[in-house]
Batch of 2 targets.
Target 1
Amino acid sequence: MSRSHTDVTDQVENPACPVSEVLDRVAGKWAIGILVAAAKGPVRFSELERTIDGISRRMLTLNLRKLEREGLLTRTVYPTVPPKVEYACTEMALELYETLLSLVDWATRHSGDIARAHAVYDTAHTVAPAP
Amino acid sequence: MSRSHTDVTDQVENPACPVSEVLDRVAGKWAIGILVAAAKGPVRFSELERTIDGISRRMLTLNLRKLEREGLLTRTVYPTVPPKVEYACTEMALELYETLLSLVDWATRHSGDIARAHAVYDTAHTVAPAP
DNA sequence: CCGTATCCATCTCGATACTG
DNA sequence: CAGTATCGAGATGGATACGG
């Protein structure tokens, strides 16, 4: 093999970069919350609306459509009255979810360092240098 | 232990969610590109400006400051003339980079499925239903 | 119940110009 | 070389109201 799996540079630089694309998919304020909520089993629209807390109807719909389009969620309509719609993670999404866990792990392990970095940076940049 | 490491739900729902935070850090259009460019060794400002291709001076600066504040990059000024500034990944950032690789892997493995999902969704939603 | 449509405030980002 | 300052276009997201 001529290229190691760490040679990702060219992919990041070009527009089809898979990392950036996947991050753009789930980076929004709500996408992950939705994914997580749906990871445990099918959820209804109104359930999500209550669970996510703070999300507007519009944003919920937009994110659901987006995730559905990406193939991360399936949408199932039950033609009952009143209507019932369930959203469920696809296999792909559950795999992604597992991968996301390693990010959680990283973030957890380094939360201290990050907080420290913030403090250091802020004190170094916001306190006016003494005259 | 009372909670498995997969019980991330409550974290996603609350504002201090580590996943969302870490994604917000690197999800921008440029952050990953910068991180990748710096992963191979210290880089100068103008080097990044040329490498990243398409980034404006302003955005480069903003992202560099942000990443520096997060503790992902270090900034070293050499008081020469002309000035020289080098940016380098921290240990933390290199670790994050490795983690990101698993996302690349996921994206690569499923790029076909995603493209298919797009196609399916689009044909189902953009072609007007025949009357 | 499950959305879509509309309006508006806010934020983001690129272009451009100027400085130590 | 390595930034900062300012401005305006466009994207983003919340509130609200209405439709299937």
Target 2
Amino acid sequence: MDNTTSTHFVRKIIDDDIRQGRCPDGIHTRFPPEPNGFLHIGHAKAICLNFGMAAEYRGKCNLRFDDTNPEKEDMKYVEAIQDDVRWLGFDWEDRLFFASDYFARLFEFAIELIEQGKAYVDGMSAEEIRESRGTLTEPGTDSPWRDRPVAESLDLFHRMKAGEFADGKLVLRAKINMRAANLNLRDPVIYRIRRTSHYRTGDNWCIYPMYDFTQCLSDALEHVTHSLCSLEFEDHRPLYDWFIDNLDTPSRPRQYEFARLNLEYTVLSKRKLIELVEDGHVSGWDDPRMPTLSGLRRRGFTPKSIREFCERIGLTKNDTWIDAGVLEHVIRDELGADAPRRMAVLRPLKVVIDNYPDDKEELLDAANHPQDPSMGTRKVPFSKVLYIEQDDFMEDAPKKFFRLTPGREVRLRYAYFITCNEVVRDDRTGEVVELRCSYDPATRGGNAPDGRKVKGTIHWVSAQHARPAQVRLYDRLFSDANPDRGEQDWKTCINPDSLETLDGCLIESDLAQAESEQRFQFERLGYFCADREDWQRESPVFNRIVTLRDTWAKISKERS
RNA sequence: UGGGGCGUAGCCAAGUGGUAAGGCACAGGGUUUUGAUCCCUGCAUUCCCAGGUUCGAAUCCUGGCGCCCCAGCCA
């Protein structure tokens, strides 16, 4: 295990700030989601960073909903987001905030700006504003309203608030510099009229502040010391600082930017995730194939594994694409150590042990975790008719196949050595429907007293004791590592085989007693989780979280 | 042709003038009643390129090149 916690650049900044005595009251961060969608693994990176730094430096981290756009936001998202942050393992204590709670303060700040002659009410249309903004290479031009008297702007702004103007008729703009090389400084709009009911403030307001104005001032009001955001806001930092420098704020926060996460074989843009949900490509925000936290949770990922993932991917300003294998690795690593082992047969093939008494049954000892005796053992019932995995039998087996094949002996895990003597086929289809085998009573438990070895060990269940279950096999949602690459529409590379539902699975009987969200290793297959939504004792449903590493699959794939 | 960032292995990532950490992936070997786990071993003569400074450069200087972001009354 990797024990080198990196001193990434944010830690260095904080260390330096502390050393220089810039944070006398400790460090204070915040996670500021907009409640317009569900949180995904990319947000987890930000959450772990913000709450993580606060915890590490014994500071505080607020949860603040950045809800300044009533057209997109909704209460159902604020609830889902809180659930997800809590599930991830973080606690904002009594510091649950909403930017919308600051609307009155923000309005006052705007007045303060106008009074200083640093903001003005503009009467140009959205199109006119866009045209006068200039381009990347050409400067913008001043609005004819730019030098409107302070008193007039003040009056107009109050009347905007009072609802005297139609949507889009007027805006409040910061008076900075229309010729600035940084477009964000070309007199940005800071308030717009939007006669839309807000999910929290209702119809109290018909003017709403913009992000740039809201974010920095909210940070200042909350005494945030380190405002961590993603790289696309780097260009906004001068604006962030401009508001703070020009207003009488209770504190002086600083913004720092890091690169957002890109993960192979998925998409992490809110717009695209919404589209996947709304167009029915997935069953919902919590579909186990989704990179959302609720999706990962339903799939069976643990909060700890997500946190570990966020630790491993590092924190820099580089554009990064994280290998899908990293996520698989962290969950295998955790569950490999923690998950109790059970046997389950996903695609059953009937096996009859001819020389085993018809009505006999016995209970065999099986370890719940071979590497961790403290997890104990259990009794597994054995009888004449069993089921094994179809993949564990091959009629014309290549040399390297060391599972069951006619005439060869294998071990049934924790049970007996068996030999396949006869293959029974369906008369019409020719399909193998049953294997007739014999067992060696001396090999009870899986060891031969004469010391003979078998190369293969396979899992099994007893026909009369096993319970039926549905198992859902998940694969990556996209067939291309980067669905946005090239000209193609990202939706053309949605993997049509990302979900396979298996209905005739047979599981050890005690698995049917599991609680929803309980995780197990199905030996030789992978890690599985009792579905959070659909699990029922009468009809168990398991989701495959991830397979075990499978060298054989690799070998057999190379052969074909 | 503007501004802001970023370039160290297939993917992440340390390193800040003293001779390229670590993880993932991959390959080989050992242990094994899970083809799993675990354990070894290998995996950048070179840090985007080219010059320069220096006894010594991924680190400093100069000049190139490449990639990402910005022209919402979104965040």
